[in-house]
Amino acid sequence: MTVEVGRPPALRSQLNLWKPLWWAYPTWVVTALSAFGIYAFFAMIQKAGFAYPYLSPFYSPHIVISGLPISPAFYVAWVPLGFRLTCYYYRKAYFRSFLWEPPACAVADRPGRYTGETRLPFVLNNFHRYFLYVTLVVLGFLWYDAIRAFDFHGHFGIGVGSGIMLLNVVLLSGYTLGCHALRSLVGGGIDCYSCSLAAQGRHRAWSGVSLLNNRHALWAWASMFSVAITDIYIRFLIHGVFADPRWVS
Ligand code: FES
After folding, report:
1. Which atom of ligand 1 is nearest to the CA of 132?
2. pLDDT tens readout for residues 85-136
3. pTM of the model
4. Has residue 207 got a pLDDT over 50?
5. Which atom of ligand 1 is closest in space to residue 83's alpha carbon?
6. Would you state the pLDDT for residue 19?
């Protein structure tokens, strides 16, 4: 009779099933983030992201400083870039995929000493909360742009672009408002949620953020792709590839 000690059989078989595919997630992350980064860079250097009444999310808020030959997108790019780079979910994704520390569960780390986020540049990840504050302001501008996408020279209208812009800002809101730092901000540092009306309000806010937070990774990917798709759509309009189908009252 053989007595086996160690991992329970169910977990062991899960790991055995999973292990041959451990590379799938890092490969996906490297491919998707690299593709998005390259696309975003080329979209931002175009210096044009507006096809009336649609403004590309890469260019919002639209800041123009006369005399400076810099694309307006670069004045705001640091906000979403910093927010996503320091996001808890993306940290996990790029630590596993780009840095291999470790690339997956039950897979060995790359050789070398893991120093975590105690030194430059990764210690800067501790600024995530501050990126959140600025991102909330940018999110307000994106909502303004999405609402303005239904205004066609003073008349209410609905175009395919209006729908795309609205969907984009909803996905970005789901991602931003499900932030771990926001969850801690609205629900942390309190001992009793039922002791006052303000505390009860904070509990409701915390529950709402927690609901979004449950699918934070999904919101992260969906909102990243929606930003690219919105920009691609607007870029097609700018270059006259097709006209925006719309109804205007
Ligand atoms: S943790 Fe992901 S946006 Fe804050």
Report:
1. 4
2. 999 999 999 988 988 877 777 777 777 666 777 888 888 889 999 999 999 9
3. 0.88
4. yes
5. 3
6. 66
Ligand 1 mean position to 223 CA, how many Å?
Answer: 12
Residue with the bigger pLDDT between 147 and 124: it is 147
Task: Cite the DSSP H helix spans in 98-196.
Answer: 128-148, 160-176, 180-187
Q: Which residues make beta-bridge pairs with 152?
A: 155
Nearest to 172 by CA among 144, 135, 147, 204: 135
Ligand 1: residues whose CB is within 6 Å? Answer: 87-89, 128, 179-181, 216
Q: Please report the atom of ligand 1 found closest to the CA of residue 175.
A: 3
User: What phi and psi values does residue 157 have, to the nearest 5 degrees?
Assistant: -155, 165
From the CA of 88, how far away is ligand 1's center (Å)?
Answer: 5
Most confident of 1-10, 120-129, 176-185: 176-185
Cα of 90 vs centre of ligand 1, distance in Å, is 8
User: What would the two tokens of residue 42 be?
Assistant: 């080329």
Residues in the chain: 249
Q: How many angstroms does the Cα of residue 154 sit away from the middle of ligand 1?
A: 37
Torsion of CA 19, 23, 26, 27, to 10 degrees: -160
DSSP string, 24-75: HHHHHHHHHHHHHHHHHHHHHTTS--EETTEE-GGG-S----TT--S-THHH
Residue closest by Cα to atom 4 of ligand 1: 179
